[in-house]
Amino acid sequence: MGMNHDMIGHVYPPSQPYLVTAEKISAFVKSLGDTNPAYADGTVAPPTFPIVVTMNAMDAAFHDPALQLDYARLVHSDQRFEYVRPIRVGDELTVSASVEEIKPLGTNEIATFKTEVLSGGELVVTGWSKIVVRGPEA
Amino acid sequence: MTIKFSDVVVGQELPALDLTFTRADLVAYAHASGDLNPIHQDEEFAKSVGLPDVIAHGMLTMGRAIQVVTNWVGDPTAVIDYSVRMTRPVVVPDTAVGSVVRFTGKVAQINDDGTIQVELGAIFGDVKVLGLAKATVRLAQ
To answer: Which of A101, B13, B63, B132 could form a disulfide with A112 if both were Cys (CB 3.0 to 4.6 A apart)?
Structure first.
């Protein structure tokens, strides 16, 4: 009993818009302990900021009953971001998540979710998150 | 000082960073990122699911590792691709000193299109907490 392979290629509806504010950027930068002066005015977000919106979009997918994913056994194993441009203050981000791959790995299953982050209809960054769903203990 | 594409050589090491992870850092990151999973804050809960103690968010470790690159380049928007595998967790005990992770970087490749690839490392004690960590960076010409 694992994930539903028929969901490979499934595209979820776009997430609700997320407005990027200087406060949100500054809180994220501060929580990373990043003192780079480039972030001082809160206009440009750090490279991993997109996770704030992509993780929420994937959470919605993870809980989709059709996917048959055992959330309690899920571990986030890999993350990649490919940037068209950095996220900036004033962006209104929406995320389109899709199921790119589901495959067995020993007794576990791995799945890759692609997340396209857009602002004003333009692609800003693409994320790929690989998760491992641990199989039943032997 | 700006790092120029023409000044970089394969094998060049970037200045390493030793960064501390405390429980307070995890709380701040949880709120800033929206990832409120109790394994990152609640010791009892973490232990109940088989972890040795509270662990740092893998995405916090990823967010810190890239500082090796962005501190070196100066401009964080120079990063055009960044990926990691979260191989092992950073365990964070409830102490004032927390846990220290050493982040390293090395120029692995110089590309014809004016970009370079940096291989990143993240070592906690003697454990690699990130694997396959690499960033593509566009440098000033």
So the answer is: A101
Residue A120 pLDDT greater than 90, yes or no: yes
Residue A22 CB coordination number (10 Å): 13
CATH architecture of A5-133: Roll (3.10)
Tell me the whole-structure pTM to 2 decimals: 0.94
What was the pLDDT predicted at B1? 62
Determine whether A137 is exposed, middle or buried from the number of CB atoms within 10 Å of its CB (0-12, 13-18, 19+).
Answer: exposed
Topology of domain B5-21+57-138, per CATH? Thiol Ester Dehydrase; Chain A (3.10.129)
> What are the structural domain ranges in chain B?
5-21+57-138
DSSP string, B12-33: PEEEEEEEEE-HHHHHHHHHHH
Q: How far apart are the first and last CA of chain A?
A: 14
Half-sphere exposure of residue A134: CA atoms within 13 angstroms, side-chain side: 9
Residues of A numbered 42-71 whose beta carbons fall under 8 angstroms of chain B's beta carbons: which are they? 44, 46-48, 51-52, 55-56
Q: Does A74 touch chain B (CB under 8 A)?
A: no
Any residues with CB less than 8 A from the CB of B47 and at least 6 apart, and which?
B53
